[in-house]
């Protein structure tokens, strides 16, 4: 009888301990889906950061401040909370409907979640309100490129080049201008632009775009574009897209497809333009 009683007590204690342990283990919330690919793959945001918390507090103190609204939207974007950022920028546009900077940021975030028509509408309207904002022209060029309007994209990147805020952005707009001109059948014009080395105007920089520019100029071969040191998925997708486009311009569709497939396998790079365009190209070259 005593043994039976002890067995019951120990069993109850073990069960209670297990239950308490389960209660003490925090349940991690599932982050919202930001983009669902045509094949059904879901890409989600990241949890709130300190920057988001601080931006929310600052906005609570100044709820009609467009500057604080932009700060929050940018912080949300940093955590891949793109749909939340779109809502934040929309809140700002309800206060200032013709604020070109808000249109620049919301257009960029619509691009991130593949709502290309909305992105085009915001960025086009933003360019009509204020033609001096680099980010409007750069991202409008990306959207036009996505839509296959390569001449319009080239015009946007031509606008963007002299407005670039730093050497890295200048390298990016130079790269996209070369790709846009090349895809529009203006290869000679694209190569003449490269020969002027416009990206050097703001000094030296090393990033994925400068490596792609080296490929276009023949300074490195295709096998040197992606190296073992490239482990970040956004970096891989960016390099792989540039390589694939280079093959496509040369008529090498099989090699282009392999590069685009490599880009979309870099799953954590899903917000990057290289990933986005690789998805688009894989549909185009079927």
Give a short overview.
By secondary structure, the chain is mainly alpha-helical.
Structure description:
There is one protein chain. The protein is an all-alpha fold and 286 residues long. It has 3 domains: 51-120, Alpha Horseshoe (Serine Threonine Protein Phosphatase 5, Tetratricopeptide repeat); 132-204, Serine Threonine Protein Phosphatase 5, Tetratricopeptide repeat (Alpha Horseshoe); 221-286. Helix content is 66%, strand content 2%. The protein contains 14 helices and 2 strands; from the N terminus they run H-E-E-H-H-H-H-H-H-H-H-H-H-H-H-H. A two-stranded antiparallel sheet has the order 1-2. Strand 1 (33-36) and strand 2 (42-44) form a beta hairpin. Helix 5 runs parallel beside helix 7 and helix 12 (233-249) packs antiparallel against helix 13 (253-265). The chain is globular, with a radius of gyration of 24 Å. It starts with a helix and ends with a helix.
Task: Give structural attributes.
3 domains; Serine Threonine Protein Phosphatase 5, Tetratricopeptide repeat; 286 residues; two-stranded antiparallel sheet; globular; 2% strand; disordered N terminus
Strand and helix map with partners:
Elements: H1 2-24, E1 33-36, E2 42-44, H2 50-61, H3 66-78, H4 82-95, H5 100-112, H6 116-129, H7 134-146, H8 150-160, H9 167-183, H10 187-195, H11 208-216, H12 233-249, H13 253-265, H14 273-284
Antiparallel strand pairs: 1-2
Helix pairs in contact: 2-3, 3-4, 4-5, 5-6, 5-7, 6-7, 7-8, 8-9, 9-10, 9-11, 11-12, 12-13, 12-14, 13-14
């Amino acid at each position: 009888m005593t043994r039976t009683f002890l067995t019951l007590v120990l069993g109850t204690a073990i069960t209670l301990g297990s239950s308490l342990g389960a209660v003490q283990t925090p349940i991690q919330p599932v982050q919202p889906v930001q983009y669902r690919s045509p094949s059904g793959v879901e890409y989600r945001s990241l949890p709130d950061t300190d920057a988001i918390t601080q931006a929310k507090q600052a906005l609570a103190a100044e709820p009609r401040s467009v500057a604080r609204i932009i700060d929050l939207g940018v912080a949300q974007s940093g955590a891949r909370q793109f749909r939340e950022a779109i809502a934040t920028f929309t809140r700002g546009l309800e206060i200032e409907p013709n604020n070109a900077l808000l249109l620049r940021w919301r257009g960029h975030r619509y691009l991130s979640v593949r709502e290309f028509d909305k992105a085009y509408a915001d960025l086009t309207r933003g360019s009509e309100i204020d033609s001096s904002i680099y980010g409007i022209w750069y991202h409008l060029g990306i959207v036009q490129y996505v839509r296959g309007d390569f001449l319009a994209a080239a015009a946007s990147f031509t606008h963007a080049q002299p407005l670039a805020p730093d050497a890295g952005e200048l390298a990016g707009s130079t790269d996209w201008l070369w790709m846009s001109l090349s895809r529009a059948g203006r290869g000679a014009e694209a190569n003449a632009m490269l020969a002027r080395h416009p990206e050097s105007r703001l000094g030296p920089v090393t990033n994925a775009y400068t490596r792609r520019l080296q490929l276009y100029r023949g300074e490195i071969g295709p096998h040197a574009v992606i190296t073992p040191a490239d482990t970040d998925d956004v970096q891989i997708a960016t390099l792989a897209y540039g390589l694939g486009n280079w093959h496509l311009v040369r008529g090498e569709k099989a090699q282009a497809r392999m590069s685009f497939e490599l880009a979309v396998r870099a799953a954590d790079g899903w917000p990057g333009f290289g990933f986005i365009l690789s998805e688009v190209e894989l549909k185009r070259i079927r």
